[in-house]
Amino acid sequence: MTLIDWLTLYRACDTGSASANELIQAAGGDVHIAAYRLALAKLGSSKHTAAIRSAESDLRWVEDHQAAVLTIADPEYPTLLKATTGAPLLLFVRGQASALALPQLAIVGSRHATAGGLATAKDFAASFAERGFCVVSGLASGIDTAAHEGALSCGSTIAVFGTGIDQVYPASNARLAEAILSSGAWVSEFPPGSAARRSHFPRRNRIISGLSMGTLVVEASLGSGSLITARRATEQGREVFAIPGSIHNPLAKGCHQLIREGAKLVETAQEVMDELTPHVRDWQARTTTNLAAASRETHADDDPDYVAVRRALGYDPVSIDALAQRTSLTIPVLSSMLLRMELAGEVVLNAGGSYSRATG
């Protein structure tokens, strides 16, 4: 199937991934042109014609704005998201699509967070980004904003939209959204022209959790949408973490409820890292397998960037900023590489965030 075929099918199903998936399954379960034609045959000619026009408009917008569309059949489609039930058939991406190839960790919470909650979200996000994780959140006010800002200070972040990627919601985060494009990405299952609707945000939340190995809830009331994200993460078989708070703080009650339901209580970023280490290894194995099947596997032993990092490292601790200067690699790229090398036993992360060669 060509990209215009995918976009036509998506538009014909009103961009609802569930209905599109049902049509694909009814057509035999295979994502190929025969299934596509059988699926569209069920829709009628007038709806098919309108879908083609909308798809052509989508494709023009994507090309004009240097955006991308990933289909669920593409090897670059995020591995963890693809493994979830009802994964979007298409993802519209603007910015650095390579950010989707990094290990992901979600941070979510209240739009009306306390000053302490905002500081916590920002600090945790910076710690995760420094370790090579790409922080995923929803670009909302409050905790989401703090998480994106913290990740940008030393790494990469992804904003999952509840609108099309041709508009930023809320508009107050326009400057932050533009900053994300330089080292991260905007992602949405909704095509250009899709406005903010209440029904879009629960669907957005399943993508936030589906992209991620784990979801951290910083502050949330009992009615917070962040609890939906956390529960979707549980349904998807992902880790859920929650930061406890004062029993007098209404924004701690949602976190306490999650902990009662089985979320892991955490007080430091390192506790999250310790829990996720085996999941990172599993993610690496699956990602490598998928890329190998597409003949795109990266051989770190021969890759010139990895060779440059090995040459720049010594047995004395060195900061990531110094490594960036020595190798001319960006901080987000270096963070991802160093995480992989750490898991492979080549690199040691020292106190204070410096790196050195492993002695073993």
Description of the molecule:
With 360 residues, the protein is of the alpha/beta class. It folds into three domains: 1-64, no CATH class; 97-274, Rossmann fold (3-Layer(aba) Sandwich); 298-357, Orthogonal Bundle (Arc Repressor Mutant, subunit A). The protein is built from 15 helices and eleven strands. It has helices at residues 3-12, 17-26, 33-41, 45-64, 79-82, 115-130, 143-152, 174-183, 200-211, 225-235, 253-260, 269-293, 304-312, 320-327, 331-343, and strands at residues 68-71, 90-95, 104-108, 134-137, 156-160, 185-188, 214-217, 239-242, 264-265, 347-349, 355-357. A nine-stranded mixed sheet has the order 1-2-6-5-4-3-7-8-9, with helices on both faces. β7 (214-217), α10 (225-235) and β8 form a beta-alpha-beta unit. α6 packs parallel to α7 (143-152), α7 packs parallel to α8 (174-183) and α9 (200-211) packs across α10. The longest helix is centred in the last third of the chain and has 25 residues, at 269-293.
